Structure formats: structure tokens, C-alpha cells
Amino acid sequence: ETGVTQSPTHLIKTRGQQVTLRCSSQSGHNTVSWYQQALGQGPQFIFQYYREEENGRGNFPPRFSGLQFPNYSSELNVNALELDDSALYLCASSFPGTGELFFGEGSRLTVL
Amino acid sequence: GENVEQHPSTLSVQEGDSAVIKCTYSDSASNYFPWYKQELGKRPQLIIDIRSNVGEKKDQRIAVTLNKTAKHFSLHITETQPEDSAVYFCAASEDTGFQKLVFGTGTRLLVSP
């Protein structure tokens, strides 16, 4: 059984640029969530995808968007990057109703 | 919306001592309370969880207690070991299948040999 994998692991962007982060969910999991973890803070919920539809969103602006593909993998896109977007972005997969989230190792984004 | 507060922010204990981390939540609709352990540079990993239909759950050296009336829950680690050193996060959510977890700010636990 493969776990949640994310790419890239690290990346550096400048203000105003766009970034795409990728996530492959754990085998058998059809729900993917994205979280933003700023340094020294707990993860904050961005949104969740189930059956290729966004079915829940946290307090993040529309420039944060996502996709889920038929194989349940997912992308997080962030447009018009700001300095405060610098953080660890965590993807988590789960099976509906089980509660437990399985996190990937994250993508660490630095915005200069 | 839900707000989760976690204390203390840092906790230092000697190997073999017990450690207790406490969290409070605000939304009475929350009924699922997991605890995650995050080692430096690693992913958060679930160590124990509890649902509102029980007051206590134990797994070897780790236990979680829940007081729904007071809206607080706690993590108890007994016989701490150096490998328990990590950041621990509590979280809360409505266990509806829509798994939006609201996390606390974390507790850095340091276990000294």
C-alpha cells in the first residue's frame, strides 16, 4: 500500500507568480484535503475534494484553487503569490466516514 | 466557526515522567477529536483519536480523555521516552464525512534522557 506522496518537496517563487503543487492519494482513498501550515502553527484547512468536486472550503481567497482527477490525485494552484503564502502545504487523503487523515510529507513553498 | 486552543506551547519532561497536553474547543457540534504527532521535518501522523460517544480511550502509553460538557480534551503520555519528543497537535471536527479538521497551535514536547 503506497502512502500519500507530494511534489515538489521544496520550491521558491517570487511575489505575483503562480504555483502548482501535486498530490497522489493513498491507495483506496477517494477524498483529498489540502492544508497550509505556517512555521510554528497548526495546519489550516484550505479545501477538500471528493469525486472530483470541491465539497468544502476554509477561509482562503479564490486565488487558491484545486483539482481532483479520476485517479483521485489532486493539484493545488495558487495564483498571484504573496509573501504570506510561504508555508508547508500538506495534502491528506482519507476514505469518507473513517475520520483519519493520512498526510503527505508536504511541499515547502518560499515566496520572495 | 470552530476554534481550538492548545496548552502548553512547550513542555519539557524527564524520561519516564508523564506528559499532559490540554485542548479546548468552541463548537458544540464537534464530535471527533484526533491527536497528531509531527516530528521535525516530517508529516503529521495520527497517534490516537476519540469520538464524543466515549469519555476516554487508551492505547499502550497514550490516552485521551474528553469532557464534552466543558468542551475540553487532553492527551496523556505515560513513561515518556526520548523518541516521544515532537510537536503534538490536537484537532476537532464534525465527524460527518466532510473532514475539515481545525487544529490547535501545537505543543513542542521535549523528553530529556
Give an overview in words.
The complex is a heterodimer of chains A (112) and B (113). With 112 residues, chain A is mainly β. Helix content of chain A is 0%, strand content 51%. Chain A has strands spanning 5-7, 10-13, 19-24, 31-37, 44-50, 53-57, 64-68, 74-78, 87-94, 102-103, 107-111. In chain A, strands 2, 4, 5, 6, 9, 10 and 11 form a seven-stranded mixed β-sheet that branches. In chain A, a hairpin with a 5-residue loop joins strand 7 (64-68) and strand 8 (74-78). The mean pLDDT of chain A is 92. With 113 residues, chain B is an all-beta fold. Chain B is built from no helices and eleven strands. In chain B, the strands form two sheets. In chain B, strands 2, 4, 5, 9, 10 and 11 form a six-stranded mixed β-sheet that branches. Chain B has a five-stranded antiparallel β-sheet with strand order 1-3-8-7-6, with no helix packed on it. Chain B starts with a strand and ends with a strand. The mean pLDDT of chain B is 93. Chains A and B meet through strand 4, strand 5 and strand 10 of A and strand 4, strand 5 and strand 10 of B.
